[in-house]
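can u do me a favor
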């Protein structure tokens, strides 16, 4: 439990915490939002001592371990709550969207005497106390009262708040208030089950609201107000609306377009058949109720826009995808487990390609200097990705390491490349670009020796119709001298350097994908590409393992925005490849797919990403089959997949969003369902997979 012994230390802590959040944002997020342990050296000794004295952290074997979760709300209020992983009945509920939503809609006057029913962490009472004359905060949970007192002292409003142990109105029989507020429990919980103080509200989640609505008027002054926030079940109409209509007075309902699926509750409680039937095909909307008793009896319903609604999630969960939820496993431990699985998959997989021909080649549409054209893609025989060969590799969606030949001589690599090139009539087939893939990094000498690089470039330089050449490399191998050497051989032909960034989110890139790279290395490579007067071509992966379609779409859009922001900052010619994950054999993605824990990328998502990012710059869609089977590729249903793939490929040479206008299919409704509700926290999904063996 947190310590209330030294009030002076608590009061001085606020500025120290805010400075810590500003100076060490990643350490703050890891420790107090992701609930991970961090090394001692990450925090200054004097600050560490204060946190320890107040029991906000503990130290074990050189690591700092959080005892509480700390949120900074609206840059001015700090709130400590229990960890998500604290699973006892008296848990002090971590800050969530509905609390901030209510705070934004509060109507407070300077002379108000206010009652906050079910104060929990005290967050609502604290915000009110910054304006109102006096606040009474009631709470049945003694642990919550301790936390809320701590938070009031921390935010320097303890003199304006009186905390009272009370079962709703019980301890306020003879009192009147100008404003009564509440964020009561609203989770549907079957009868007879143990539950958190903060959660259970009967079979339909509205028991507490039913209890409060008939009572609040007798505790209000003549011009008093009642404001509360809850979820409300809805099909055509809000169930809550029916309850509020019975109350005399001016009434207002503000609806946030965010709803919760039944699955969110099923994780905590086994719902009854009656409940499942009751919730079937219904949504739970977040609703703020404003009731002002007067002679009026109208009911106003206000809907918050999607754009405005998004900010509430961003305030409470500033990590975006890094808001991983309760877990006992650290990022490092998680990565080690994923890498071990990768090693097991690799050890059981066939390797080394026969040296009779290259793994694959094919022609695809593209855009060169703003004009439609064609590109020839060739996967050359190579010695394999250095990262994949390490014990820590390969990437979780990649099996290219299995189509390499470590024994290939320089001569064989060059001869097989030239043999494949000679199959194509470049002028007749109007091919103006060659993309070289070597299942790794073209600029790494251990994979493609300098002699081979030079000879391949010389072969290409002799093909007159070729205007552009693309090579791939991990960012750490990008070298200015090597790029300038290749450019010199190619002459006037443009050189494009592709980097598999995959995601701008560190957790997604280095844990879920196991990329083993960082943004600093990517940005350094971008600067070298700029100096070498070449073009940056970054790969943005669509739907890495463990991400839902909804999470993946957001991650890819953020990645594209990041890449173009770097290009703009450096004034560097920049392209992005939109690369949906293919379900390839001998990968972690394939193992997940076999256990029905991963599904293909929907083409509808690809279209949405293009619509939201096309104005940022040149985006190319990577949908070449490369010999893959139907069930391994991104797709919709059988009726529309081929048509939409062709449209997406057409976009590569004709980037016009009108190509996707009025597209529809029965499967679109199935795809839309994937965007409803809140997904299971990512780390929990990973742990579920680890346990599934």
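np, heres the sequence
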């Amino acid at each position: 439990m947190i310590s209330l012994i030294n009030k002076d230390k608590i009061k001085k802590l606020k500025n120290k915490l805010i400075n810590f959040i500003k100076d060490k944002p990643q350490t703050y997020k890891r420790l107090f939002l992701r609930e991970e342990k961090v090394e001692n050296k990450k925090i200054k000794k004097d600050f560490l001592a204060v946190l320890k004295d107040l029991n906000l952290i503990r130290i074990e074997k050189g690591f700092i371990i959080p005892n509480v979760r700390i949120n900074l709300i609206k840059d001015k209020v700090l709130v400590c709550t229990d960890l998500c992983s604290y699973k006892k009945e008296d848990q002090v509920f971590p800050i969530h969207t509905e609390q901030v939503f209510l705070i934004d809609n509060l109507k407070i006057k300077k002379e108000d005497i206010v009652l906050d029913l079910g104060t929990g962490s005290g967050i609502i009472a604290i915000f009110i106390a910054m304006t109102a004359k006096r606040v009474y905060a009631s709470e049945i949970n003694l642990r919550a009262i301790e936390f809320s007192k701590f938070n009031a002292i921390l935010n320097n409003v303890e003199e304006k708040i009186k905390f009272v142990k009370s079962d709703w109105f019980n301890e306020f029989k003879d009192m009147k208030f100008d404003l009564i507020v509440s964020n009561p429990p609203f989770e549907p919980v079957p009868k007879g089950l143990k539950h958190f103080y903060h959660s259970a509200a009967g079979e339909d989640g509205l028991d507490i609201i039913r209890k409060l609505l008939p009572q609040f008027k007798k505790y209000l002054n003549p011009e008093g107000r009642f404001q509360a926030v809850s979820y409300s079940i809805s099909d055509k109409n809000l169930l809550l609306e029916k309850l509020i209509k019975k109350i005399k007075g001016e009434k207002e309902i503000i609806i946030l377009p965010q709803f919760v699926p039944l699955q969110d509750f099923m994780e905590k409680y086994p719902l009854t058949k009656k409940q499942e039937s009751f919730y079937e095909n219904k949504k739970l909307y977040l609703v703020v109720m404003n009731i002002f008793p007067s002679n009026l009896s109208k009911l106003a319903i206000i809907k918050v826009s999607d754009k405005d609604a998004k900010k509430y999630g961003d305030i409470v969960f500033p990590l975006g995808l890094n808001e991983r939820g309760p877990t006992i496993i650290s990022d490092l431990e998680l990565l080690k487990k994923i890498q071990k699985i990768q090693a097991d998959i690799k050890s059981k997989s066939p390797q080394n390609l026969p040296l009779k021909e290259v793994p694959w080649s094919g022609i695809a549409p593209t855009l060169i200097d703003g004009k439609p054209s064609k590109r020839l893609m060739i996967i050359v025989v190579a010695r394999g990705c250095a990262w994949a060969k390490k014990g820590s590799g390969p990437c979780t969606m990649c099996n290219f390491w299995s189509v390499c030949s470590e024994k290939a001589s320089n001569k064989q690599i060059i001869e097989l490349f030239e043999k494949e090139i000679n199959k194509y009539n470049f002028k007749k087939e109007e091919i103006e670009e060659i993309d070289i893939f070597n299942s790794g990094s073209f600029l790494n000498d251990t994979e493609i020796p300098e002699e081979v690089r030079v000879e391949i470039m010389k072969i290409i330089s002799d093909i007159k119709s070729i205007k552009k050449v693309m090579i791939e490399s991990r960012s750490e191998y990008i070298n200015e001298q090597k790029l300038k050497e290749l450019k010199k051989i190619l002459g006037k032909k443009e050189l494009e350097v592709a980097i598999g960034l995959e995601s701008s989110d560190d957790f997604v890139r280095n844990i879920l994908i196991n990329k083993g790279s960082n943004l600093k290395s990517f940005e350094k490579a971008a600067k070298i590409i700029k100096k070498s007067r070449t073009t940056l071509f970054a790969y943005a992966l669509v739907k890495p393992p463990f991400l839902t379609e909804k999470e993946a779409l957001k991650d890819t859009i953020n990645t594209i925005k990041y890449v173009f922001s770097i290009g703009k900052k450096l004034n560097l010619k920049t392209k992005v490849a939109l690369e949906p994950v293919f379900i390839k054999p001998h990968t972690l993605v394939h193992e997940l797919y076999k256990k029905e824990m991963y599904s293909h990328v929907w083409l509808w998502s690809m279209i949405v990403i293009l619509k939201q990012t096309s104005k940022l710059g040149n985006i190319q869609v990577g949908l070449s089959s490369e010999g893959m089977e139907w069930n391994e590729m991104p797709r919709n249903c059988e009726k529309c997949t081929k048509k939409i793939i062709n449209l997406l490929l057409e976009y590569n040479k004709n980037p016009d969003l009108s190509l996707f206008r009025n597209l529809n299919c029965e499967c679109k409704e199935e795809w839309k369902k994937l965007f409803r509700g809140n997904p299971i926290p990512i780390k929990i999904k990973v742990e579920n997979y680890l346990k599934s063996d």
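The first strand starts at residue 38 and ends at 39. hope that helps!!
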